[in-house]
Amino acid sequence: MPLRPARIGRVGVVGAPVAKAAVVSAAVRPGPAPVAKAAVVGAAITPGRRRRI
Amino acid sequence: MAEVEIAEHALDDLGPVDYLVIEFPAGHQTFTGEIAEELVRLVDAGTIRLIDAIVLTKDENGDIDAVELSDAGDLGPLVQLEADLAELLAADDVINLANAMDPGSVAGVIVYENVWAGPFAAAARRAGGQLIANGRIPIQAIIASIEADDALDENGA
């Protein structure tokens, strides 16, 4: 691991092993209607959408 | 004393610092330089400040290799950013970050300050506010929420 010497022995900032996050692109790529799913996400963040209480 | 005041002022104006680990799975690595161009664009626009960047590889045995950006070959437009990197990540961080990678993959790691958020964060602090939570909402969760709403509508609820 040819890291610069400045990185060796220093206190880290990440803190703990990082878990793999859900792959975001998988949400809109596969499935029977990928375009529809992308549109759904777009609708969710459209200004004016009101939450259901 | 003046230096302390300057440092405190700079710290007060610091935007949130985030990291990203972008994995390129084996067989899905098509580097055209577009990523570098967009990264430079974000820095030039003052949206972010690039603090650190390294390239990680994990072989099929799970062994990790880390390459400094300056040693990663032709940097293209990243050359102008490389000189200002702060080398914030320690060797332990590299191991922790690589934990998220699949064997056989390559990943780019960037650490950056959200410069765009600095003035807002400073204003919030001056008003007595303190950040007590933050996070990212997965696209999957948004889809699930909308689909649940649609299901309720269809059922007349």
Task: Write a concise keyword list for the protein shown above.
heterodimer, A: 53 residues, mainly alpha, 21% helix, elongated, B: 157 residues, alpha+beta, four-stranded antiparallel β-sheet, 4 strands, DUF1269 domain-containing protein (chain B)
The helix/strand class of chain A is mainly alpha
The chain pair forming the largest interface, with residue counts per chain, is:
A-B, 32 and 34 residues
Order of helices and strands of chain A: H
Number of strands of chain A: 0
What does this molecule look like?
- The complex is a heterodimer of chains A (53) and B (157).
- By secondary structure, chain A is mainly α.
- Chain A is 21% helix and 0% strand.
- Chain A has one helix and no strands.
- Chain A has one helix at residues 34-44.
- The N and C termini of chain A lie far apart (53 Å).
- The mean pLDDT of chain A is 72.
- The termini of chain B are far apart.
- Chain B is an alpha+beta fold.
- Chain B has one domain (2-116).
- The chains are: A mainly alpha (53), B alpha+beta (157).
- Chain A binds chain B through residues 1-4, 6-22, 24, 26-28, 37, 40-41, 43-45, 52, and chain B through 19, 21, 54, 64-68, 71, 87-97, 99-102, 138-140, 142-143, 145-147, 149, 152.
